[in-house]
Design a protein that fits this description.
CATH class of the largest domain: Alpha Beta
Distance between the termini: 23 Å
Order of helices and strands: EHEHEHEHEHEHEHEEEEEEEHHHE
EC number: 1.1.1.18
Low-confidence stretches: none
Strand order of the largest sheet: 12-11-7-10-9-8-15
Helix content: 25-40%
Bound molecules: nicotinamide-adenine-dinucleotide, 1,2,3,4,5,6-hexahydroxy-cyclohexane
CATH architecture of the largest domain: 2-Layer Sandwich
Shape: globular
GO biological process, one term: inositol catabolic process
Strand content: 15-25%
GO molecular function, one term: inositol 2-dehydrogenase (NAD+) activity
Structural class: alpha/beta
Number of helices: 10
InterPro entries: Gfo-Idh-MocA_inositol_DH, Gfo/Idh/MocA-like_OxRdtase_C, Gfo/Idh/MocA-like_OxRdtase_N, MI/DCI_dehydrogenase, NAD(P)-bd_dom_sf
CATH superfamily of the largest domain: Dihydrodipicolinate Reductase, domain 2
Radius of gyration: 20 Å
Family: Belongs to the Gfo/Idh/MocA family.
Mean pLDDT: 96
């Protein structure tokens, strides 16, 4: 890869909630990049997003955008099932990619991506596990790395969304939401997740019919830690993500979100973010800037295709545990040398 002094030309694939927000971010927040193409199977949506950006072309096919001369790099923000085809096309053009989570929805397709990248011989993909770029999670990782708290023994996570979007299923609580705790566990502890157990209380009366919400998910890791995740996507009151790591000599906790506390009329309190775009705005900004900076230096950083594959395998174990009950072991292939294996 060569160093690029000029602004990186980025194609954004998928111009829905995340893609349109990334277009705005690159144009208004990120330095060193500009959006040169957008792609959406919905041609009108692509055109209306492209119209907001000078010199940006609109496409309905990722391949035509990636073939354009002013496209140096790609952000994939289409739905998960479309990621594999877009990633493989990006590899054909040897383009760097920031791929929103999931890398792909199943471990078999994720492994095909890992294998294709391995054949290229160099990393091209950063996966959009943005919590690694959140200021609080970064502090948590830093404090664990000092060793002052001792060895991590347990992690307690709470992941709450105000309401699930239309069309959600019980499996999506694992595949779309708990996927972040899977990545955070592997990243914070440096362990692989070896088994998953999903417990299911009587669903909330506010959950859409047929959806098992909330769920209580347990991970076991190869470093001997136990991790629990409460996932509750129709909690009603807001968007809340919290993590507490219990170590041998102390604990560290993030996500209380008490940026400002008011005292008035005999009460104290603060506000709760309403969605991930609000809660993690700084993390998305830092993630995209880190990707642009690394790409312009000719490097690839952040969560890798291997991380995307490992998380997909944990998701599969979680969905099996949800469906059949009990503890399900996670099966991973050997880690290729490209990813430090
Ligand atoms: N990191 C996070 O916190 C986070 C948050 C939300 C969503 N996501 C991920 O971002 C991705 C997009 O999610 P979203 O909420 O923006 O979805 P969305 O439904 O709002 O937008 C998806 C867009 O992609 C388009 N599309 C569908 N198939 C396509 C294809 N083959 N090629 C090009 N465009 C296609 C759709 O027409 C739509 O405009 C998903 O992978 C999702 O899991 C990540
Ligand atoms: O796709 C979203 C996104 O990944 C959010 O970060 C998560 O909190 C939501 O639960 C999920 O639906």
């Amino acid at each position: 890869m060569t160093q690029r002094p000029e602004a990186l030309g980025v194609a954004v694939i998928g111009t829905g909630k995340m893609g349109a927000d990334h277009v705005r971010r690159i144009q208004e927040v990120t330095s060193g990049a500009r959006v040169t193409a957008v792609v959406d199977v919905d041609a009108e949506r692509a055109k209306s997003v492209a119209a907001r950006v000078d010199g940006c072309t609109a496409h309905t096919d990722p391949a035509s955008a990636m073939a354009a001369a002013d496209v140096d790099a790609v952000i994939i923000a289409s739905p998960g099932p479309a990621h594999e085809a877009a990633l493989l096309t990006a590899f054909e053009h040897d383009l760097p990619v920031l791929c929103e989570k999931p890398l792909t929805p199943e471990s078999a397709s994720a492994l095909r991506v890992v294998e294709a990248e391995r054949k290229l011989g160099h990393r091209r993909v950063q996966v959009g596990f943005m919590r690694r770029y959140d200021a609080e999670y970064m502090k948590l990782k830093a404090v664990l790395e000092t060793g002052q708290l001792g060895r991590p023994l347990m992690v307690h996570n709470r992941h709450r969304n105000a309401a699930s979007p239309p069309g959600w299923t019980s499996e999506m609580l694992i595949n779309d939401s708990v996927t972040h705790e899977m990545d955070v566990t592997r990243w914070l502890l440096g362990h692989e997740i070896t088994a998953v157990t999903v417990l299911a209380p009587t669903p909330s009366g506010n959950a859409p019919d047929g959806i098992q919400d909330p769920q209580f998910v347990l991970f076991e890791t190869d470093g001997g830690a136990i991790v629990d995740v409460e996932i509750f996507v129709n909690c009603g009151f807001g968007y809340q993500v919290q993590a507490e790591v219990v170590c041998e000599r102390g604990t560290a906790r993030v996500g209380d979100g008490h940026a400002m506390v008011t005292n008035a009329a005999g009460r104290w309190g603060g506000t709760i973010a309403q969605d991930f775009v609000e809660r993690f705005v700084d993390a998305y900004d830092r993630e995209v800037q880190a990707w642009v900076d690394a790409t312009r230096r000719g490097e690839v950083v952040g969560p890798s295709a291997w991380d995307g594959y490992a998380v997909a395998a944990v998701c599969e174990a979680g969905v099996r545990s949800l469906r059949d009950g009990g503890r399900v072991a996670v099966e991973l292939v050997d880690r290729p040398a490209l990813y430090g294996g």
